[in-house]
Amino acid sequence: MAKVFVEAYGCSASFSDSEMISGLIVNGGHTLVDNSSDSDLNIVVTCSVKDATANKMVHRIKSLSSKPLVVAGCLPKAEKSTVEKFSKNASMMGPNSLGKTIKVIDSTLNGKKMIALEHSDISKIGLPKVRLNPIVGIVEIANGCMSECTFCQTKLSKGDLTSYRIGDIVRQIETEIKDGCKEVWLTSTDNGCYGFDINTDLPTLIEEVSSIPREFKIRVGMMNPMYMVRIKDNLIKSFENKKIFKFLHIPVQSGSNKVLNDMKRGHTVETFREIVQKSREIFPKITISTDVIVGFPTESNEDFQKTKELLIETRPDIVNLSKYSSRPGTEAAEWRQIDVEVVKKRSKEIFDLVNKIAEENNQKWIGWKGEVLFDEETQEGIKGRNYAYKSIFVDEDVKLGDTHLVKVTGSTNHSLIGTILS
Fold first, then answer.
1. Which domains are delineated in the chain?
2. In sequence order, what are the beta bridge partners of 420?
3. Chain segment 104-130, per-residue pLDDT in tens
């Protein structure tokens, strides 16, 4: 019996992995604790997608190394030597090694470092969980992807696409709902190519999940535009179900086709533009989320201006902005890099632009009335989401999992402000 502290960083799939690691720990006879100061062993589920994130991971690895430590997630798989440099005794697990969780913990507690970076033969569907949020079920529908992006280290960590079968996913979601979840996230490295390896696709999965005869909401996670060409018509049709949040996360990364080609993204600006336009024709208030990288090695000033123009034209509600940083093992890391000051300047321009667009978009929601599911505890209070997955705060006391009729009375660039009508 050991007391184990688990923390996670990065994407929703990383947090899902941490929930399953915690579930395996409890099932294996150990105890979870809320603080590393109370633990016998620490586990950190890492992310290595950006330089800044990797630096944060190094800081956490160093600070948690005073006790037996297991470093899990993407960083040890992509950069094993980095982990060893800062914690030579730490054990390691990759994103697909969850089946070895208890063996790694027991070995580490006995003073023997264990490296488990290869795939275990256990599926992530159906594993026990300790949820970070009791009303949100994070369900991984696949692992890995089909892309070969020149800037991305995730492929090095997670490998090629492995989709989980629809029947198994449906049974997992039925378990989540039975356990009290009122919201389900469908997540993976890239939802857009889900099922291409097992002769199915994302719209088919969404239709099956939506037909589960219970009241709950579904958030569909990130989809790369290159694969949406194959599925966009059926995908938009599947979104007509009232259980689906009208929310699309489609990372464009650049407004320049030349840069997209250098990134090996596999889509064009026109692909992104068409998806946004078609989605808004059917769902006028759909929330569009995208990702943009500024300062990619081959990005000229003209390319950068094209990115600004695309954002002004398509007006996404959310833009996850990143300054390009070279990641070890990626193709673009070998190329000549753009001056840091130029990248900072471009980043500031995009930051100001997308905040302005978000604020103007949110102002259009003032006066809206509708149902809001309060699904997340934050430092500002319990946050709710409406049918378009818009963040809404109210002054009244609400409980996690409540659904209320709300009127939007104000807005910021990040969220809406409302009052409860019932």
1. 3-116 (3.40.50.12160), 136-363 (3.80.30.20), 369-420 (2.40.50.140)
2. 406
3. 999 999 999 999 988 876 778 888 899
